[in-house]
Amino acid sequence: MARKNDTPTVQVTASPGSGGETHQQADGRPHITTNHGVRISDNQNSLKAGDRGPTLLEDFVLREKIFHFDHERIPERIVHARGSGAHGFFECTVAIPELTKASLFQKKGERVPLFTRFSTVAGGAGSVDTPRDVRGFAVKFYTQEGNWDLVGNNIPVFFIQDAIKFPDLIHSVKMEADKGYPQAGSAHDTFWDFVSLMPESTHMVMWAMSDRAIPRSLRMMEGFGVHTFQMINAKGETTFVKFHWRPKLGMQSTCWDEAVKIAGADPDFHRRDLFESIESGDFPEWELGLQVFDEEFAAAQSYDVLDATKLIPEEVLPLRIVGRMVLDRNVDNFFAETEQVAFLPTNVVPGIDFSNDPLLQGRLFSYLDTQKSRLGTTNFHQIPINAPKCPFGNFQRDGMMQMMVPKGRANYEPNSLGANGEDGGPRESPKTGFATITTNDDRNDPTQKLRVRGALFADHYSQARLFFRSQAPIEQAHLASAIVFELSKVALEPVRLRMISNLRNVDEGLAKRVADGLAMDLPAASKPAKAPIDMEVSDALSIVKKGDPAMPGRKVAILFDEGSDKAEIDAVVKSVEAAGGSALLIAPKVGGISVKGGTLKADGQLAGSPSVLFDAVAIILTKAAAAKLSKEGAAVQFVMDAYGHVKTIGHNTGAQALIDKAGVEPDEGVVSLADFAKVAPKRHWDRESKVRTLA
Ligand code: HDD
C-alpha cells in the first residue's frame, strides 16, 4: 500500500542477508554470491569434466552469470538515447501562490529533490556528445505532491505543430532506413527532404542550425518547457505559463570545427564535463523563469500560443525568475539511474496543468507507452529513480516485476472493508487531488473538460426493474434465490443490508424475498440518485417467455441394461436424431451387453455419465434390471437428478421400479417413450416447487 520511497542503497556484491559479521569475510569484504545468495567459492574457473574436458551444464554459477550478462541491455530510447544525468535540488526563490498552488512554489527557500537528464536527440546511446543537434533538458521534481516532470529541450520551439508528425520527423532525422547512417546528425537527404516539405519546421531549423545546437557544455545551455502550460492557484484562478531554465554560467557554444574535433578527441566531452564539475564541487546551476500570460494576451499575439513552433519574445513578455536548480550529486550507477529514469510529460502536480497544444497532447500518450517498451513492465514507476519520494498507493496491482507486497484484500474501490476493521486502502482527495482545469484554452469556447457523466446516466434502477419485472415467475424465483445464495456467502452483514436496500429500488417483492431468504429484517431503501421509472415490460428479456427449446444441439441419454428391448432403444434414438438431437447409450457396463434382439455397446458407463451431462433421459429396462438398478446408487441418482433438474424423463413400463425408487412423481415431463422426443429438450418448471424451496 502507500509507502515511502527511501533512498535506495544497492549493494552489488554483498549478500542480501541480515548484514553483520557472518556475511563478511575476515578482511571485512562482503562475500560474492549468486543472485540467490549462495556464496561463490571460485569466480575464475567454470566447472569442467576433467581439466581439459567440456564445461558441465551443472555449473549454475557460470550459467547464471552468463544468462544475466546476455540480458543486460534494454532497448535504448527511440529519441534522446544518448544522455547524461545528475541529482540535485530545486529551491523556490520567489513564492508564487498567486499563480499556482503547486507545493514546490509556495515558500521561498523550500527545496525539493530532482533528477535532470540532458541528451542529444538523433544519435544512439553510444554516439558522441557534440553533434549538431537539439539537446534534451528533462527535469523530474520529486515534490511532496508527486513527481512533476518538465521534459523540455534547449531550444524554445519545435519542428512540428502536431504530434501526429513526430514519427515522420524522427524517422527522417535518424540514420537512413536502408543505409544505417549517418549516426547522430541531420546532414543527410531524408531530414532535409522532410523539413523542406514541412514549412512549419522552418523556425526550428533556424535554431537547430544555430550555435545553440553545438553547446560548449551542458552546464551552459538554456532549457525550455517549449509548450504553453497552465497554472492554477488555490482560488481556482488560472493562467498560462511557459517555463525557461537560465544557466548561471551563461550560454556558450563551440565552433563547428571545434565540435567536430572534440567528437574525435573526447566523444564523452559533455558527459565528462558534467560529471567532473559536480565531482569537484562546482555545481551547475540554472534559474527557473516563467513567462506568465492570460487569454487576453494570447489573443492579442499574431501567432497561436498553442503552436509549439512559436515563442513569445522576452522583450514582449519578460521572465519572472522564481527558483533555481542546482545539480550537486552524480549518479552512483549510470544504468540504474540515468538509463532507467523515465520522464513523463503526464507527470504534473496539483497547480500545474496542460494546454491544448496538439504537440503536447500527443506527448501525453507517447511517453507512458515508451517506458513500458523500454523498461519492460508497467511497474517501472517502482524503480527507485522513478518512484515518488512522497507516499503513494492505489489499487493497481500485480504486473511484471512487482516489488510491492500489498496486504489485505482491498484491491478495488469503492469498498467498505474499513468499516469491518480491515485496511480499506487509499481514497480520492476531492479537495487536494489533481483536478484538471475545466475551462478550454479558448475561453470563448464554452466546452469544458470535465470528469462527469450526463444527467440521465444517474438512473441506475429503472432498467434493473424492467429486467426483473419482465422475467417469468420461475425466473424471478431463480434470480431471487441466486442473490440469496450469493449473499449467504457474504460474511460482511452491512454489505448484505446495503444490497437489499438497493434491491428495494428494483422491486419491493424481490428485496423482501431476499431478506426472507437470508432471515434478515428488510432495511430501508437506499436513496437513488434518480428515482426509477416503470418501463413497459419486455418479454424479449425472458428466456422462458421466448418459448420452449427445440431438439437441435441437445443431448439425450438412454439408460439401458441387460435384456432391454433393442427395438425400443432404436426407436428413441431414431426419433431424437430425426428431431436434430443426439442420443447416447448409457449402461452399467460399456462393453457388449446382450439385449433383446442383439448386443449393444454403451457410449458411457453409468457411474461416469451422470444425467447432468444430458438435456433429457430415457430409461429402457426390463423389470429385473430395474429392480437391480434400484439398489445401485449411480442409477437412482441418475434418475433423481434428472427429475430434480426438471428434465424430461421418458421410460418404458419395465423401468417403473427405478422411477419409483428415485421419488419421481408423475407430471407432464414424465412421459412414455412414444412421447419422449416431442418434449425432451424442455425443462418442466412447474415441477421445481416440488423438489426445492426457492426464494
Ligand atoms: Fe519527446 C523523449 C523532449 C516531442 C516522444 N523527449 C524525450 C526526451 C526529451 C524530450 C528531453 C528525453 C527524456 C529523457 O531524458 O529520458 N519531446 C521533447 C520535446 C518535445 C518532444 C521538448 C516537443 C516540444 N516527444 C515529442 C513528441 C513525441 C515525443 C511530439 C511523440 C508523440 N520523446 C518521445 C518518446 C521519448 C521522448 C518517444 C523517447 C524516450 C522517452 O520518451 O522516454 O516517448
From TrEMBL:
Protein name: Catalase
Annotated InterPro entries: Catalase, Catalase_AS, Catalase_clade2, Catalase_clade2_helical, Catalase_core, Catalase_haem_BS, Catalase_immune_responsive, Catalase_large_C
GO BP terms: hydrogen peroxide catabolic process; response to oxidative stress
Active site residues per record: 80, 153
Transmembrane in keyword set: no
Binding-site positions, heme: 77, 117, 166, 363, 367, 374
The protein's role, per its UniProt record: Decomposes hydrogen peroxide into water and oxygen; serves to protect cells from the toxic effects of hydrogen peroxide.
Stored Pfam families: Catalase (PF00199), Catalase-rel (PF06628), Catalase_C (PF18011)
Membership in a protein family: Belongs to the catalase family. HPII subfamily.
Organism: Sphingomonas paeninsulae
Enzyme Commission designation: 1.11.1.6
Catalytic activity line of the entry: 2 H2O2 = O2 + 2 H2O
SUPFAM superfamilies (UniProt xref): Class I glutamine amidotransferase-like, Heme-dependent catalase-like
Domain Catalase core: 33-421
